[in-house]
């Protein structure tokens, strides 16, 4: 389990629109990572739209925001364009980063068990330490709560 005050696991992942993001290359900027199950599903769409709606406030506070799922870059690009998303979406196709952040978990739906991403958000301070973790995120009001916590760093 990835815990508060631990060093956030570093990674380099491809992003929507091309290029790569390396977590450690963003410091000393604080970073928000929101892990979500799948592009273009209702909860994931609402979460990405909420973070997009606050992007200018995150930017003004000097905070980088990234969404991470296992979806392909092509799906990310389609998702971004369909909903006018402005937060960068990273593709963890092999689930390595999801596993290192302990968000790749056994889930259950309609009596069937499967592995998937548990909606989780991490706030990482400018030194690379995990400052806050939100597990089993409920989307309404979440982006606002994350912005408030990030501003308090």
From TrEMBL:
CDD domains: PRX_BCP (cd03017)
Active site: 44
GO molecular function (one): thioredoxin peroxidase activity
EC number: 1.11.1.24
Keyword Oxidoreductase carried by entry: yes
Record key words, sorted: Antioxidant, Disulfide bond, Oxidoreductase, Peroxidase, Redox-active center
Boundaries of every Thioredoxin domain copy: 2-153
Xref: SUPFAM superfamilies: Thioredoxin-like
GO CC terms in record: cytoplasm
A GO biological-process term: cellular response to oxidative stress
Protein origin, superkingdom: Bacteria
Pfam families assigned to the protein according to its UniProt record, in alphabetical order: AhpC-TSA
Reaction catalysed by this enzyme: a hydroperoxide + [thioredoxin]-dithiol = an alcohol + [thioredoxin]-disulfide + H2O
Family: Belongs to the peroxiredoxin family. BCP/PrxQ subfamily.
Stated role: Thiol-specific peroxidase that catalyzes the reduction of hydrogen peroxide and organic hydroperoxides to water and alcohols, respectively. Plays a role in cell protection against oxidative stress by detoxifying peroxides and as sensor of hydrogen peroxide-mediated signaling events.
Record protein name field: thioredoxin-dependent peroxiredoxin
């Amino acid at each position: 389990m990835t815990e508060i005050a631990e060093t956030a696991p570093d990674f380099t992942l491809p992003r929507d629109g091309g290029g790569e993001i390396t977590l450690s290359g963003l410091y000393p900027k604080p970073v928000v990572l929101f892990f979500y199950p799948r592009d273009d599903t209702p909860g994931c769409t609402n979460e990405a739209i909420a973070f997009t709606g606050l992007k200018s406030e995150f930017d003004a506070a000097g905070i980088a925001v990234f969404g991470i799922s296992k979806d392909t870059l092509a799906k990310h690009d389609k998702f971004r364009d369909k909903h006018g998303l402005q937060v960068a979406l990273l593709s963890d196709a092999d689930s390595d980063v999801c596993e290192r952040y302990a968000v790749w978990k056994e889930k259950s739906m309609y009596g069937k068990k499967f592995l998937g991403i548990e909606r989780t958000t991490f706030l990482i301070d400018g030194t690379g330490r995990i400052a806050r973790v939100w597990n089993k995120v409920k989307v309404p009001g979440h982006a606002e709560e994350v912005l408030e916590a990030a501003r308090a760093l």
